[in-house]
Specification:
Number of domains of chain A: 4
Low-confidence stretches of chain A: 747-769
Strand content of chain B: 15-25%
CATH class of chain B: Alpha Beta
Distance between the termini of chain B: 62 Å
Mean pLDDT of chain B: 86
CATH architecture of the largest domain in chain A: 3-Layer(aba) Sandwich
Strand content of chain A: 15-25%
Mean pLDDT of chain A: 95
Strand order of the largest sheet of chain A: 5-4-18-17-16-6-7
Low-confidence stretches of chain B: 176-180, 199-207
Shape of chain A: globular
Structural class of chain A: alpha/beta
Largest sheet of chain B: 4 strands, mixed
Order of helices and strands of chain B: EHEEHHEEHHEHEEH
CATH architecture of chain B: 2-Layer Sandwich
Radius of gyration of chain A: 25 Å
Oligomer: heterodimer
Largest interface: A-B, 84 and 51 residues
Number of strands of chain A: 28
Radius of gyration of chain B: 21 Å
Shape of chain B: globular
Number of helices of chain A: 26
Structural class of chain B: alpha+beta
Number of domains of chain B: 1
CATH topology of the largest domain in chain A: Rossmann fold
Strand order of the largest sheet of chain B: 6-1-8-7
């Protein structure tokens, strides 16, 4: 409706973020009694989806115990997994629905929240039509919720505009895999990484973002495998790289094109595989003819000899694997980057075998499952295209509606925000998404949110985006739901409920179904449980690409996960795709795609001469709604730090701990410098998990990949300027985490004594509350 | 746990501090971590190293303790100081060659890693080595852990003329020298250097 109802400071005081350090009742209570039960489930954070056991005492999660039997992680966890239990009985937890009033948010009854939301949505639909309403979903929630949300948008509201935060994640990879392979999933189980002779890791900071993957990479190296790392920064896996290629941000495509050039030039392609199992290689071969290593070196800044070497290693290996993540996907040519990387593995026959494949590393907890069953603008359940008449008939049949009622493809996540800004979309209903922190060009997002005529949110904490809401439903946390997710491997896993939603909070699925009923569409949402939603999902996915029909909850628990596609209950599932050279296109072949070099959307020039790239740190997850409230994770990396090379720092007179203003064509942010020789001297890095004045996404731009619609987070142009320490550091910290460090830290003359001290950007401050 | 040994392999460490987080979840000292993870030289390298108590055969900390508060069990695990005896004098803190013990001001007690005695005595692996995502810290039967690793286990450390033998193994590279790295060693810089140029405001960088 407008700006937040009261000041951000007032909202922070009431709803956080406040860092939580101890389980409910304190350490003594948690240690004094044996837990009532240990619940086997998975971590609520990244796509690794590590097995974990939650300790439950009096309907509260009070701790964890490693789950060593779960095969993927065997008890291993990153710090987010270790401390995830601290989100449960958190003081900031929303316990009842909130209504926006003139003086802030007031608690209202669940019924009143439903009535108001349904009335406002119906009014807006009557006045402007169903497409004036947009739905935002997310990929950190169980698949059942993503499915029922997609159905809600199309059946209860009748809008075509539903999209999700996975649009900011791996959609470039998904688009590329569908174009080439006809299926959008990682090609191999992670155990295959340990069997490869060469692993090419491009734009994959797995040590921070998918930490368990490092154990597989180290196993590969211990067995004699070679690791090639492509990244403008030396991320922790680079310490054991056999070859390191520090590409200039946004130039991965040139590197891949040149590597293919070398493979073709030196006869290292697998012509037999290409002939038997692929189409379109001739045009690709022609397209790389001019891509000599010297030309690519000019663009990427990687020595030509090392481009040669990478190609030689790949070409000579019997088994090679590629892993790629946001580093190559977050670009306006993200799809091309992925296609060109896939082409390297397809042209060398490195697919469909143990230790041979090319895989995206999906980032979000249910980043895989969350994009399969209908909350994506262009897809229906089962990874079916919403424009495919047969898919529409099938899904309409399962849903019991006329196929003509089913809307067509809608706008993607960033495009929805742009349509709100233009005034075309009037109402937004959002769950599991914090676009004010996670969308590019946050100033624009802020303006758009203030224009909404109605904004409804389901969340368990009051996120920065929810500050703009008219109604906030207190939804369910990960440990309060039962259902499935699909890990980065393509393994469907079971999330088990540990506790009930507290207070007047409700299961998200319950809220969505109740709202559908209030909108007069209750007959399509008669689900008594998430299990009934799942059983309908199985039928809706049946015969689709992501076919879950043979995957029952019982099988998932018994077999510790089942890889889709799995069309029948006696089907073993599909851990490795493309065995025997069979692909998912109608002709059974993989389709090579030609890619052409082009520049990015925010080029450097004399005014903005430095590349800005953004990313994650190990102790935080996405927009930080959860991890910025978990004390030990906050202290591990309390606030955004700007990483830059000593040579660049010297040019601007910047020393370790100095404050730097980073200015782009959108906005400016100040952050403290960390001067390290482990990032390209033409590039700076700022992690993005924080809101407010230091939010990295104030700086990024809204250029999208034309096919995947992913924003170009990984390459913006900026300029740097050394500035005085900010006077409002306390306000910044209150908005970000509620963590204030030591008081000396906040004095006007001493902010440079950072809490992380000499340990550098990931330093753990030795501060106790 | 019988036959299980503890291995530290710094070359695997990714600096994630999962061990630090998990140590504070150990029931014997919930909320307090006994592990340190440090950057070796952050300005020039991403390398990190985790340090747990090495559990010396002849623990220097115990030898210098004036109150005889530090005991080694028959299992070779050196415990935190005995609460009734510890006088918080910090002799052990100063003497330990690995920098492990810390005197905690609040309880006036030396506390350090006891290899999760409360867990191993119940047949559970230590928290840190169980969760470590890169298995830089690992705990298990030596043959299972060493199988296929190219590093080799060492437990003799020379400090000047004094040799310290430990229960915990440190994994060392076979014969690789330590190298200091700078990103520029991996970049293509000849053409720019020849032209006396380097940074991005140079024309060569715009294309």
């Amino acid at each position: 409706m407008a700006e937040p109802p009261v000041s951000i400071e007032q909202l922070n005081r009431l709803y956080g973020p406040h860092p939580n350090y101890a389980p409910p009742g304190g350490w003594e209570r948690a240690g004094a009694r044996a837990p009532d039960k240990l619940v086997k489930t998975h971590c609520s954070f990244c796509g690794m989806q590590c097995g974990i056991q939650l300790k439950v005492l009096d309907n509260q999660v009070v701790g964890f115990e490693p789950w060593e039997e779960f095969p993927f992680n065997r008890g291993m966890l990153c710090p987010k997994g270790v401390k995830r239990y601290l989100q449960g009985a958190h003081p900031d937890r929303l316990l009842q629905p909130l209504l926006r009033t003139g003086s802030g948010f007031s608690p209202i009854s669940y019924e009143a929240a439903l009535d108001l939301t349904a009335r406002r949505l119906a009014e807006i639909k009557d006045k402007y039509g169903p497409d004036a309403i947009a739905i935002y979903g997310g990929a950190s929630m169980i698949t059942e919720k993503t499915y029922v949300l997609g159905k809600f948008a199309r059946v209860a509201i009748g809008t075509k505009h539903i999209d999700y935060n996975g649009r900011l994640c791996m959609v470039s990879a998904g688009t590329a895999y569908k174009l080439t392979f006809g299926i959008d999933r990682a090609t191999n189980p992670w155990t295959d990484l340990a069997k490869a002779q060469v692993v090419l890791a491009a734009g994959s900071n797995v040590a921070d973002c998918a930490p368990i993957t490092t154990h597989y990479l180290w196993q590969c190296r211990e067995a004699g495998g070679k690791l090639i790392v492509v990244d403008p920064r030396m991320t922790p896996i680079t310490r054991n790289a056999d070859l390191y290629l520090p590409v200039r941000p946004g130039t991965d495509l040139a590197l891949c094109l040149s590597m293919l050039h070398v493979l073709v030039r030196d006869g290292m392609t697998d012509e037999r595989y290409i002939a038997d199992h692929t189409t379109g290689f001739g045009a690709v071969r022609d397209s790389v003819r001019d891509w000599t290593p010297e030309r690519a070196a000019q663009i990427t800044g990687v020595p030509p000899g090392n481009i040669e070497k990478a190609a030689q290693w790949l070409g000579r290996a019997e088994r090679a694997m590629g892993i790629h993540a946001r580093g190559i996907e977050h670009h306006s040519k993200g799809v091309e980057n992925c296609l060109a990387m896939i082409n390297l593995f397809l042209a060398t026959g490195n697919l469909g075998r143990e230790g041979a494949g090319c895989m995206m590393i999906t980032g979000q907890g249910n980043g895989q499952g969350g994009r399969e069953h209908g909350q994506k603008a262009d897809q229906l359940p089962g990874m079916r295209l919403i424009t495919d008449p047969e898919a529409r008939r099938h899904v309409a049949g399962v849903w019991g509606i006329d196929e003509k009622e089913l809307p067509g493809p809608g706008l993607s996540a960033v495009e929805i925000m742009e349509a709100i800004h233009r005034g075309e979309i009037k109402a937004l209903f959002s769950i599991c998404f914090n676009p004010l922190v996670s969308l590019p060009d946050a100033g624009f997002t802020r303006e758009a949110l203030a224009k909404l005529e109605f904004f409804g949110v389901i969340d368990f904490f009051l996120s920065e985006t929810a500050h703009f809401a008219d109604v906030v439903f207190a939804g369910s946390m990960h440990e309060e739901d039962e259902g499935v997710i699909c890990s980065a491997e393509g393994r469907v896993q079971k999330i088990n409920k540990a506790v009930d939603p507290p207070g007047a909070a409700r299961s998200d699925a319950r809220i969505i179904c109740d709202l559908a009923a209030k909108l007069g569409r209750g007959q399509y949402f008669r689900f008594a449980s998430t299990r009934e939603i799942y059983d309908e999902l199985r039928r809706a996915s049946q015969g689709g690409i992501a076919d879950y029909y043979g995957i029952t909850w019982e099988r998932v628990e018994r077999e510790l996960g089942v890889f889709w596609p799995c069309p029948a209950e006696d089907h073993p599932g599909t851990p490795r795709l493309f065995e025997g050279g069979r692909f998912w296109h109608a002709d059974g072949k993989a389709h090579f795609q030609v890619t052409e070099w082009r520049a990015g959307g925010d080029p450097i020039d004399a005014d903005y001469p430095v590349y800005l790239t953004t990313g994650r740190v190990v102790s935080h997850y996405l927009s930080g709604t959860q991890t910025r409230r978990i004390g030990p994770l906050v202290e591990q990396y309390p606030e955004p730090k700007l990483e830059l090379h000593p040579r660049l720092a010297a040019k601007y007179g910047i020393a370790e701990g100095d404050w730097v203003k980073i200015t782009t064509r959108r906005s400016e942010v100040v952050a403290q410098a960390t001067v390290v020789g482990t990032i390209r001297p033409d590039t700076v890095f700022l992690p993005y998990h924080w809101p407010g004045r230091r939010s990295a996404n104030r700086l990024t731009h809204r250029t999208l990949d034309p096919r995947s619609k992913i924003p170009e987070y990984k390459a913006s142009a900026c300029r740097l300027e050394k500035v005085a320490p900010p006077a409002d550091l306390r306000e910044m910290r209150r908005e970000e985490t509620g963590w204030f460090g030591s008081e000396a830290d906040l004095g006007p003359n001493s902010p440079s004594t950072t809490p992380s001290g000499p340990a550098g950007p990931f330093g753990s401050p030795e501060v106790r509350r | 746990m019988y036959g299980y040994e503890f291995f530290v392999d710094p070359s695997r460490c990714i600096g994630c501090r999962s061990c630090v987080a998990a140590c504070a979840e150990c029931d014997g000292h919930r909320g307090q971590s006994m592990i340190h993870v440090d950057y070796i030289d952050r300005p020039n390298s991403i390398a990190t190293v985790p340090m747990v108590c090495m559990h010396c055969e002849e623990p220097t900390c115990a030898l210098v303790c004036p109150a005889d508060a530090i005991k080694k069990g028959e299992d070779g695990v050196v415990r935190s100081a005995l609460k009734p005896r510890c006088i918080a004098c910090s002799n052990c803190v100063l003497a330990c060659p690995f920098g492990i013990p810390k005197v905690h001001v609040e309880p006036e007690l030396m506390m350090k890693c006891d290899m999760c005695y409360d867990r191993t005595s119940l047949g559970l692996r230590p928290m840190c080595a169980t969760v470590c995502p890169s298995q830089a810290l690992s705990y298990g039967p030596p043959e299972a852990i060493l199988r296929g690793r190219s590093t080799h286990p060492v437990r003799d450390f020379d400090f000047g003329h004094e040799r310290v033998t430990t229960k915990v193994f440190m994994m060392m590279p076979p014969d690789e020298p330590v190298v200091s790295v700078d990103i520029e060693d991996y970049m293509w810089k000849e053409p720019y250097e020849a032209a006396g140029q380097w940074l991005v405001d140079d024309a060569a960088f715009t294309h």
